Amino acid sequence: xxxxxxxxxxxxxxxxxxxxxxxxxxxxxxxxxxxxxxxxxxxxxxxxxxxxxxxxxxxxxxxxxxxxxxxxxxxxxxxxxxxxxxxxxxxxxxxxxxxxxxxxxxxxxxxxxxxxxxxxxxxxxxxxxxxxxxxxxxxxxxxxxxxxxxxxxxxxxxxxxxxxxxxxxxxxxxxxxxxxxxxxxxxxxxxxxxxxxxxxxxxxxxxxxxxxxxxxxxxxxxxxxxxxxxxxxxxxxxxxxxxxxxxxxxxxxxxxxxxxxxxxxxxxxxxxxxxxxxxxxxxxxxxxxxxxxxxxxxxxxxxxxxxxxxxxxxxxxxxxxxxxxxxxxxxx
Length: 332
Fold this sequence. Notes:
Strand content: under 5%
Order of helices and strands: HHHHHHHHHH
């Protein structure tokens, strides 16, 4: 039996086909619902708090201005040289205050820009669209334009990216190629800070010194992580980061953090630690690690994927293992 011959390809000549012989067939829907881009959560507005802070600040600044004006006039009445000297000092003071205020505003704007980039990235990662990720990637590259250590990573991403990738895939590739080195260094900062806090607070017998060590080391690590991701926070942005990190920890549940240590205790892993001070140091190190990981999520210009989230459990194991190894040598 001979196999059937394949049909040769052919084309219809539109001049030889009557229009009433053609029927337009609409494509059937594939049943896949269109991707829904979640809207950003509404911002909480606090008009009365803003009114209080704005009016109070204006009142205090006006009062200080009137006091300075009266003081300068009084000095001019005593001596023109004395009045001129105090006027110059006042002008320099105002100039310095304006410089500090401008720097704080810039740091807050940088933090807000990173927030905006991350929110756009969250929407694109679940959208499945094409052509919208390039602008976001260019803005993130501009954020790290003065980071020569990332030039090779950016070049490697540009070589691997193709038009066949949708926005979600391009952002994932960018995060794995360009942001992964930043994440690794930030994780090392968190790891070092958590170990330092755990070990130092385990050695100090005074609770006040413990609190000071935790506060200073945590704030320095927080600022280092933010600078590492391009935020460069001032005082106001630092306080905003602290507030947001505390809120994230509360939302995640402090009990989840402490339950890790409780599980270790139940499993007899902490029984090898020789003093309650060392156990308290482990708790302080875990809290510092949780804050550091939260700051990484806040300052990163793209959200972490589930597989990329830094592991608190891994940090916990490292801190406890490190304290267990050093505890015998540090005990009297």
